[in-house]
Structures are given as structure tokens and as C-alpha cells.
């Protein structure tokens, strides 16, 4: 099932939901992987906890599980938002990027405004930014491949038709179409008939005498 939509260049396109959500699920898996690796690096190498976005500044318990699951849910929610924008807005990619950037900025500001150590603030902010940027970049690529030209019933009821070659209408030739058809060249009978041979003048008469 497909939904008729207006393209980003004012043409008629339709969304392919299967392709869009397949890309959304793949994005969720990648986002969970980014979160898991980031948590391991922050906890094991830098020995810093992941801070919550609340004002208490508490650290996330079981961050290696909670953060990847939250990243996957955020990716699926972003896919739903992108699908809605594709169905309702003329330039969905621009609106999606703007909304996602605002959400990431608000989330990082909440982390830095909460209580806690500076190292936890920086580590958590970098992790959230990496997850958000990864989701936005991947879904932006998915959105570009999840639309196709509408075959019927496009935006406003118009039907997409591929361009047809234009026939010459003779506007630059007043006598266009009035010429008699010419026989094919060479003649269909070839050059073997006597009517097609050139007659050479012979100055001698039938008795062989010069005229």
C-alpha cells in the first residue's frame, strides 16, 4: 500500500512504507550499536557514568542495556515522525532535520543543567549527540529512497505520465505536409530494367553506315 504525496520539487510522488520502515528498523539497530559501544567506552575506558537528563544528576543504572534500548526506541519514533512529515509537508527532510536538531540540543542542555560532575556532563552529552546525529543522518538517506513517482491519483488528483515525444507540427514550414510522396530510392525494381538504363546515341544507321 502506498500513500500519494507531494515531492520536494513540487512533483507528484508516493511514499513506499515498506522501504521506509525497513530502513527505520535498520537505523534502530545501528543506533543501539552506537549506544552500546559508547557506553562501554565511557564506562570502561574513561570510568565515567552516564548521567540522566533529570535535574538530580543521577547516573543511569544498567546503562549498557538502558541506553541502547532507548536509542532504538528513539530511532523508531523518529521513523514515525519522518513518515508523518512525508505524508503532510512539501519538504519533509528539512523539517525532520530541524526538529531532530532541536530535540538533541534540548536533551544535551538538560544534561548540562543538571547536577553532577563536568566529566559526566561532557561524556553524556557526546554520547547523546553521537546517537542523535547517527539517527538523523541515516533516516535522511532512507527518506530519499522511500519515495517514487506516483503512477495514479497523485497530489491533487493528477496522474503522472512520462514525457512523450512531440511531433513536428510544421510551424516553420508553410508547405509542410503538402509535398507529394517521393518514390523510394533506388526504385523497387532495381537498375536491371531497360527503362532504367541510359540510351546512348549511335551515329550509325541500321545498316552500319555513318549518318
What's the short version?
Helix content is 49%, strand content 5%. The chain has 211 residues and is mostly helical.
Query: How many helices in DSSP terms?
Result: 4
| Radius of gyration over all CA atoms, rounded | 37 Å
Strand order of the largest sheet: 1-2-3
Measured distance between first and last alpha carbons: 95 Å
Shape estimate: rod-shaped
Q: Give me the count of strands.
A: 3
Main sheet? 3 strands, antiparallel
Strand content: 5-15%
Poorly predicted tracts of residues: 1-11, 153-160, 168-173
Mean pLDDT: 76
Descriptive account of the structure:
The protein has helices at 17-45, 63-88, 92-113, 118-144; strands at residues 3-6, 12-15, 147-149. It is mainly α. A three-stranded antiparallel β-sheet has the order 1-2-3, with helices on one face.
State the main characteristics.
211 residues; mainly alpha; 3-stranded antiparallel β-sheet; 4 helices; 49% helix; 5% strand; disordered N terminus
Topology at a glance:
Blueprint: E1 3-6, E2 12-15, H1 17-45, H2 63-88, H3 92-113, H4 118-144, E3 147-149
Antiparallel strand pairs: 1-2, 2-3
